[in-house]
Amino acid sequence: NSTYKLSDNRLDNFEMVITCPEQDKSGTPIEELIGKYISFGKYAARSKETSVRPSVDNKKCTQSINYASVLASIAYEVEKGALWGKIKVALAVPPVEIEQAREAFKALIGSYKVTLVGGGRLADDEQSFEIIDVNCYEESLLTCTSYLFSKRGPKHPELLGKILLVFDIGASTTDVGVVKKGVYWDKSQQTLRIGGNMIRDMLKDALYEKYELLLEGEELEEAIANGKVEIMGEEHEIVDLLDSAREHCATEIREQMSTYFKRTGIDIKTVGAAILSGGGSISSGMSEGDSEKAFDEHSVGSFICKELGLKGYYYGSGARYANVEGLVLRTLLAEMN
Questions:
Q1: How far apart are CA 147 and CA 128, in angstroms?
Q2: DSSP state letter for 157
Q3: Secondary structure element (H or E) that encloses residue 187, with its range
Q4: Given pLDDT bands bounded at 50, 70 and 90, which one contains residue 271?
Q5: Cβ 138 vs Cβ 146: under 8 Å
Q6: Distance between CA atoms of 178 and 184, rounded to whole angstroms?
Q7: What is the pLDDT of residues 146-191, one digit of tens each?
Q8: Are 108 and 67 a contacting pair, CB within 8 Å?
Q9: CB 327 within 8 A of CB 92
Q10: Rounded Cα gap, residues 174 and 132, in angstroms
């Protein structure tokens, strides 16, 4: 048995039994990667076995949970009638592992029978589907694609003639790439081991040092989102602590960018602007729909641009989903060709 913990409400009370496809000798059997009997969410939490969670310490293409989540998501959508027949899979992966991922995720190709259990189902529900192709795209490529283009064409034609730096700031890493005159430069991609978790950890330490207040998990996330904490019934603004943490994160990124510019041969003076996206780049005190506050002077994206002396173009309140939108556009383009 395998148990997985995912941040996915659709799969919060979900189990499945997989009949695996036959693999050629060069492939890794899916059953060896993820097991045959699989539990997610609440079921996984009840299991005596240790639940597998996504890890930032290992490549995505080497983690069984990512293969399991692909199959579970497809089975769920097939059950709803949103997917059927022969299915092509498109995945967003960090640039640093793109070549390995393109080979590894082909292990998903094959025919499946998946029995869905739980989630309010009155009986076991078997779904059949076939994965015929898997394509992987660099996350930083997808970010710039979704910012610069839509299904109707260019969204920001004034930027297409410039050299642009693209930052996709996640929880643990920041993907960097360069766009030259509207074309993504493959050799420019790099993943920096810095992300929003640095801000979270620094704020946690600062709160304890200043107030002897120890916050974890959801309480810490709420403090970051609201920019304040409550102590003994009294509210305290912590914007200064957040700004200090974000500024430190931006400084760390800028220091690593010095090596990046030397490696790629790019002169910072020739860069026209920066595009910033990813959940780690969003300011505190905002909702998903609050685009005006998404990238104010308190966002880590703003600090990065100040450190590098660049004008920043911000994705907007949907920054967490920039890669998803780019993935859709790239997939549509591939189908057209």
A1: 36
A2: G
A3: strand 183-192
A4: very high
A5: no
A6: 6
A7: 889 888 889 889 998 899 999 888 878 888 989 888 888 888 888 8
A8: yes
A9: yes
A10: 32
Residue linked to tokens 């009294």: 234
In one-letter notation, the amino acid at residue 290 is: D
Decide if 18 contacts 110 (C-beta within 8 A). no
Long-range contacts of 72-75 (CB under 8 A, 24+ apart): 72/6, 72/11, 72/14, 72/16, 72/38, 72/40, 73/8, 73/10, 73/11, 74/129, 74/131, 75/16, 75/112, 75/114, 75/116, 75/127, 75/129
Place of tokens 């390995």: 100
- N-terminal to C-terminal alpha carbon distance within the chain: 42
- The 10s digit of each residue's pLDDT in 187-220 is 888 888 888 889 889 999 999 999 999 998 788 8
Per the prediction, the chain carries an average pLDDT of 80
Query: 126 CB contacts (<8 Å, ≥6 apart)?
Result: 113, 114, 115, 116
Token look-up 């000798």 returns 25
CB 131 within 8 A of CB 89: yes
Give one word for 211, left, alpha or beta, with left for phi > 0 and alpha for psi -120 to 50.
alpha
- pLDDT per residue as tens digits for the range 89-102: 999 988 888 999 99
Tell me which H or E stretch contains 203: helix 196-211
List C-alpha distances in Å: 117 to 40, 69, 200, 307.
11, 15, 37, 52
Look at residue 58 in the predicted model and tell me its pLDDT.
83
